[in-house]
Amino acid sequence: MQMDFHYYATYCAAVLAGYSHEDSMEICYSAQFVDCCSRTLLSGLKAPLSAATTQLQLELMNARTDPVGLQDITRIWASFHFLPGDLYAPVKKASRLYKNKVRLICGPNGALLKDTVELARGGSLQAAGIAMHVLADTWAHRYFAGTPSLVVNNTTYWFYELLPDGSERPVAFHHSPGSPDDVDRGVYNGSIFQSSENSIMNLGHGRAGHLPDYSFICYRYLPAWGDYEEIVKNNPVDYSYAFCQMIYALRYLRGDVPVFETGQYDMETPAPWGAEIRRILEKRQPDACADWKALGEAISGREIEDFDLGRYQAEYRRASKREKDDTFLGRFFLAAMAQKSMVTNKIFKSGNLLAGFSVDFDKKGFRGIRDFVKLVEAQRGGRTHD
C-alpha cells in the first residue's frame, strides 16, 4: 500500500474507532513512517539501526545476498510489509528451502497477525500505527513474500487486469525508473527480470511494481509456487476488508473489544460513509491521497496535516540519552524492534532459518544485537527475543 491508505485511510479508521484527532494523527503518522524508517535515516539520527522498518533502493542495491544478508532483508520485509500468512502451511514434497520460502508468503488473518495486534495492546500509539501498517499490507501484498525469491515473487506474461466493464487486458510490465505508471493503457513499472533466485529484484512484489498497491486494481496471474493454478486478486474488496479490520483492531487496542480474533471486521461503524469509501477504492487513480484526506476531514471535522518526514526528528536529536525513548520517534523505534523481534522469533521457532536465529531472552539471557538491550530495558523484564 501507499501513503493514501497508510496515512489518510488509517487516520479515517482511527477516528472511526474512537480515537481523538490528535491520537489518530500519531497513529497514522506511525503507520506511514514504517515506509520511511531506513538505516540511512536512523544513522543520521544516531538511533538504533535495528529499528529499521524498510530499506531504500540504494540500500538494497548494496545489500549482501549471502545467507546472512538475506536473513537481514527478510527480517525487515517479513516483519513489516509481507507478514507470513501461515508459517506451517502444507507444501507438497519439495526441498526445505523451497518450503521455507513458500511459508513466508504474505496473507491476511494468519496467526502472526493476531500476534502483531496483541503485541500492540497496552503499548504506545506508535505501536498501534505499526500494527495497522502490517495489517493493511497483509491484504495488499497477499501472495508475495518478504524474501528474495524468483520462484515465489516472479511475474510472467500471463498477467491480466480485470476491467470494470467485465473485459480484461494483458498487463505490460517494463522497467523505466522515474516514469509514472500508465493506468489507462495498463503499463506498469516493475523490477528487471533476474534469473537468480535470490536477486534483490525478486523481493516482494517488485516484479509487479506498484500495481498491487493500487486499491482499484483487479488482476489474475499464474505464480510458480501455486502449481501454476490461477490466482485472482480483487483489490477493491480486499482493501475494504483491510479498512474494516483496521477499525476492529483499533477498537481492540482502545479496549472497546475484549479479544482480537482474525477474520473479524467492523463493517457497521463505517457504514454511513460506505458509498464514499467504495467510490475511493474503485476510482482508477494511482494516488488517492486527496480523496482519503477529504473523507477523513469530513468524518472528524478537523484538518489532517500533510505527512512531514522531518516532523519529529528535531525532538529526538535534542533529547538527552535518557529522554530519547520518551520522544515520538523513540517510542516508534522501541515498538519497531519489538515487532521485528516477535516475528523473527516466530519464524525461527517454526524451523525456518530464512530470518535468522532468535533466542528467548527470558530463558537464556541476552545474546545478539546490542540495540535490543534498549528494548529489553524498556520492557522491564517482559518477554522478548533477539
What is the molecular shape?
globular
Decide which structural class fits the backbone: mainly alpha
Mean pLDDT: 90
Low-confidence stretches: none
Radius of gyration: 20 Å
Give a count of the beta strands, DSSP E runs of length 2 or more.
6
Distance between the termini: 28 Å
Q: What order do the helices and strands follow?
A: HHHHHHHHHEEEEEEHHHHHHH
Q: What helical percentage do the residues reach? A: 40-55%
Report on the biggest sheet.
4 strands, antiparallel
How much of the sequence lies in strands comes to 5-15%
- Sheet with the most strands: spatial strand order: 2-1-5-6
How many structural domains in the coordinates?
1
Q: Tally the helices.
A: 16
Note the main attributes of this structure.
globular, 16 helices, single chain, 386 residues, 4-stranded antiparallel beta sheet, two-stranded parallel sheet, mainly alpha
Describe the protein.
The chain is mainly alpha-helical and 386 residues long. The protein has one domain. 44% of the residues lie in helices and 5% in strands. The protein contains 16 helices and six strands. The protein has helices at 3-16, 21-33, 39-45, 57-61, 67-80, 96-102, 111-120, 125-140, 150-153, 235-254, 274-282, 289-300, 313-318, 328-349, 361-364, 372-378, and strands spanning 159-162, 168-170, 172-174, 187-189, 218-221, 231-234. The strands form two sheets. Strands 2-1-5-6 form a four-stranded antiparallel beta sheet. Helix 1 runs parallel beside helix 12 and helix 5 crosses helix 14. The two termini are 28 Å apart.
